[in-house]
Amino acid sequence: DAFCAVVPAAGIGKRMQSDIPKQYLSLAGKTILEHCLLNLIAHPRIQHIILALHPQDPWFNKLGIASVPWLTVINGGKERADSVLNGLQQARMSEWVLVHDAARPCLPHTDIDKLLALAGGNEGGILATPVRDTMKRADEQGLVLRTEEREHLWHALTPQFFPRAQLQHALSNALAQNISITDEASAIEWAGGKVRLVQGDPCNIKITHPEDLALAEFYLQRMKK
Ligand code: C5P
Prior knowledge:
By secondary structure, the chain is an alpha/beta fold. It has helices at 32-41, 80-89, 109-116, 164-176, 184-190, 212-224; strands at 3-9, 26-27, 30-31, 46-53, 71-75, 96-99, 124-130, 135-138, 144-148, 154-163, 195-199. The protein is 27% helix and 26% strand. The radius of gyration is 17 Å and the shape is globular. Cytidine-5'-monophosphate binds next to strand 1 and helix 2. It holds the Pfam family IspD.
């Protein structure tokens, strides 16, 4: 079976202190976005990628990757969930769909394999890593209210992998009701669906702050070995 991946990349990064959105920053000779797309399409079971871009994105067409046949470019929306929903509408050939952040260039193929193994089963799932540090809940003044039970806390990564129709329904209903959705799984949860956690490699970081770039470069080099 081959699958389609949706990559939301329509965000204008505000946390990177840079004029260029983070997916267009350069890492080991290529943009983060190119690393992300080329790594996905290099997986033997990923056949096509739908990329959601900002309608006024001036950067993408300058990249060498702009006119490859395995890529469909569409307009993103106001929030990440809108961008993903636009992408899903173009992914009708795929019964299950992977959604992956443009800002995660270091995704090991073995993690994709683990996630794709859910296809045909009863529930979709997401890559996740167990929380390492002790977790505190604080009030607005920065005083600790309590310590959360770490054993059951996970970081939600991407890709997130769900039956396309299920995800499309969950996202459009959640958006219609103004529910805050920061990943695909939260829409599925809100709709009452099950989400399987698949333990992923902690190297699959989301580039968020400038210091993440050096770390991503290190992981990319290690992946090539
Ligand atoms: O801001 P954050 O890092 O959570 O964004 C996650 C992903 O969602 C990024 O790849 C970003 O480009 C994308 N996004 C989008 N459409 C938006 C907002 C964010 O595709 N309206």
